[in-house]
Amino acid sequence: MNRTRRDRATLAAIVWAVLVSQVLLYPGVEDLVAVLGAGADAGIDAGMWFLVAEFAAFVVCAGLWGAASDALGRRVPLVVAGALGGAVGYLALVGVALADLPFWVALLVRVLGGAMTIGAFSLGITMLMDLTGGHGRNMGAAGLAIGLGAALGSVVGGRLTTLDPLAPVVGAAVLLFVVALAAATVREGAVESAASDPADDPVSESVDGSVGDDAAEPGMGDVLSGLGDRPELLVPYAFGFIDRLTAGFFALVGVYYFRDVFGLSAAGAGGVLALFFVPFAVLQYPFGTLSDRVGRFAPVVVGSVLYGFAIVGVGIAPSLVPAAAMMVVVGVFGALVAPATMALVTDVAAPEERGAAMGGFNVFGSLGFLTGFLVGGTAASTLGYLEAFLVVGAMEVGIALLALRAVRRLAPGGIARTSETAAEPTEGS
C-alpha cells in the first residue's frame, strides 16, 4: 500500500468511527430521551430537540476548530482533543440519567459534547480532502466512511438499545476514546507527504497540505464572504445543504416513522436505516470515481431528481416490505449524488482555496442536517408522516430543477476530464 492510500485509509477510518459513535444513538432516540428526563410520552419533539442540540453546536463550532488549527499549526492534537471531549460528553449523559436530572440538562450536555465531537470529524475530513489522487476518489472515500459508519451505527445502536437505552451512549463514549488513541498515531505530515509524492501526483497539484488559512473550517461569516468572491460555490453548497437535510430527516423522522407506523423495535428501525446506509456507503467510492470520468452533471442533477422521488416512495409505500425496499433505492441514488457534489466543490475552487471551500460545504451540510431535524420533526408532528416525506422529497427534486442550468455551466461535458484527474492513472491498476 503506497503512502497516499495508507493516509486515505487511516483518515477515513477516523471519520468512520466518529460517525459510528454518533449514529449509535439514533435508532433508540425515542427510548433514550425518555430516560434522560423527557418522559415516555414526549413524542417526536423531544427527539428532535435532542438531535438539534448537537448539530447546532456543530454549526457554531466547526469554524472555531479550523481557527484553532491555524493558530496551533497542527491538526492531529485537535482531533485527539475533540474525540476525548466527545467521549466525556457521552459519559456525562449517562450521569444525567443516573442522577435523574431535568431534560434541559441533557440538552446542554449534548451542545457541549457536539462542540467537541465536530473537531474530530471536521478536521478529519479536511485532512482527507487535501490528499491527491482525484477529488472524486477522495470524496468517495469520505462518503464511504460516513455511510459505513452510519450503517454500522444504526444496526449496532438498535441492538444495544434493546439491552438498555443508555447502552449506545456508553458504546459511543468507548469508541471515541479509541478514536483519540488512533488519531494520536497519525503522522502530522500525512497531507504534506501525499502532496509531495510524485508517484501519487503525476500532475503535481499545487496543494501543499499545510495547515493554513485556506485549510481552516470557516465560520458562517467567512463562508458568506467566500461566496461573495466565488458565488458559483453556492451551487454545490445548495445541493449539499438539501442532501444533508434529507439525511437528518431520515435520522429522526425515519426512525419514528418505522417504529410508529410499522411497530418496529429500536433494533428493527436500526436495521431498516441500514438498508439505506449500506448501499449509500458501498456505492459512494465507485460513484465518486465514476463522476471523475463522466463529469458531475448527471450524478448531481439526475441523481437528485431520482433521489427525491425515492424519498417520497418510502412515505407512500403501503406496507413494511416495499417501504424497506425503497430505503435501498434511496441509498443507491443518495450515493450517486453525494460524492459528485463534494467533488464539484473542489472542481470549482482554486487549489489554494479548496480547504476553505470544503469547510464552507461542511458548514452548509451541518445546517442541512439541523434543518432536516427541524423541518422533518415539525412536519411530521403537525402534518403527518406522509406529508413530511412529500415536503422533503419535493425539496430534493426542486433544487435539482432550479440549479440545472447552473450545474451544466459549471460542469460542461465532464469537468473532471478537463482538470488534473484527466492525467491521473487509475489507482490500484
TrEMBL record:
Pfam annotation, one family: MFS_1
Residues of the region (Disordered) are: 193-214
All copies of domain Major facilitator superfamily (MFS) profile, residue ranges: 232-429
The protein's UniProt keywords, in alphabetical order, are: Membrane, Transmembrane, Transmembrane helix
Task: Name the source's superkingdom.
Answer: Archaea
What are the TM regions of this chain, as residue ranges?
A: 49-66, 78-98, 104-129, 141-160, 166-186, 234-258, 264-285, 297-317, 323-345, 357-376, 388-407
Query: Could you tell me which InterPro entries the record lists for this protein?
Result: MFS (IPR011701), MFS_dom (IPR020846), MFS_trans_sf (IPR036259)
Tell whether Lyase is among the UniProt keywords: no
Protein's UniProt name: MFS transporter
